[in-house]
Amino acid sequence: MRLDEFTYxxxxxxxxxxxxxxxxxxxxxxxxxELLARVEANFIHCYNENQIIYVxxxxxxxxxxxxxxxxxxxxxxxxxxxxxxxxxxxxxPGGRHRWFGLFxxxxxxxGFTIGDLYFRSWNDGIKFLEEVANMAIPEKxxxxxxxxxxxxxxxxxYLEKTFERLxxxxxxxxxxxxxxxxxxxxxxxxxEIYIVCDVDPENPNRYVNAHPVLENDRVxxxxxxxxxxxxxxxxSNITDVIFDPDLEINTDDAHIIDDNFDRIPxxxxxxxxxxxxxxxxxxxxxxxxxxxxNYKLVVPQYFNGRIQFLMPIYLSGEFSGSPxxxxxxxxxxxxxxxxxxxxxxxxxxxxxxxxxxxxxxLNPDAGRSHK
Length: 371
Description:
Blueprint: H1 3-6, E1 7-8, H2 11-24, H3 32-48, E2 53-56, E3 59-60, E4 68-76, E5 82-89, E6 99-107, E7 112-114, E8 117-119, H4 122-135, H5 153-168, E9 173-175, E10 178-186, E11 192-200, E12 203-214, H6 218-222, E13 248-251, H7 253-259, H8 273-291, E14 299-303, E15 306-313, E16 325-332, E17 335-342, H9 344-352
Parallel strand pairs: 1-6, 13-17
Antiparallel strand pairs: 2-3, 2-4, 4-5, 5-6, 7-8, 9-10, 10-11, 11-12, 14-15, 15-16, 16-17
Helix pairs in contact: 2-3
């Protein structure tokens, strides 16, 4: 059973509830569509495995006595608290859904998580991120326009998605109950930075005692026999990450304007939507003209298992300073489809997974300019 068959979620509330989840997990730049897709997948799993929890107040009760339901989302807060999805009883008479809405609430748990890496306290997790940041070639790991609950949100996201990709590619090196993996980062002397950690004896899908080491560290040489874990890869051919400015670009107008209105700079929101769309179309053409002269202008990102592209959008028509947002483009056949717009912080975080962008417009040190 799908989530929208189980509970009635008002269309206008979907974006708001996804944004709340993004802030709850400590990643306000997370893509709402991706978050809801993952929640949907976990709901289906819980439903099929009879893991839906029926409650009245806070107490588990038989289904017929429940006024709310809970299910695991597999998301956690930055402090390691498990986040549950919640639906309440539908009080509207005659509604075809027994349950109403989609809400999120954390269950109290100590610790801090970075994907499958678990730390016993918030301070332990922040100390780990600080060690990695200090070991690597210096770069900006925080947002320019958002306030995060911790100082390394981009690094946290980078490590989570890198580890997830390494798992997909079976590139973790295991020796007994210890795991070694390649972060893809290097230090100033070009030594690769690895993470070594232990399998949690209480949970075989969780890893504890994580700490960064260099490729020539004693634990790599002795415990892992000098095995060099490979980096995660996200594309096969270099042409996969080069934008073709001559291909047609089609945009999902309703989603870009209606569903992402808060990502449009405030100075443009008072315009009619038809005017905003016209500015978008002009901005796309401006960016295409520039991309013919600079192949690195449109930056690749890895999203939902595929390479996409991030195009700078200058609604003012003046190609200077920071753009107003980035347009995410997906190649379909012999054209591109513009799926959504991202803030510059969101765009940088997504692009950083493949490589540190050297494009002048996608710069985490500079906030969006106000024209």
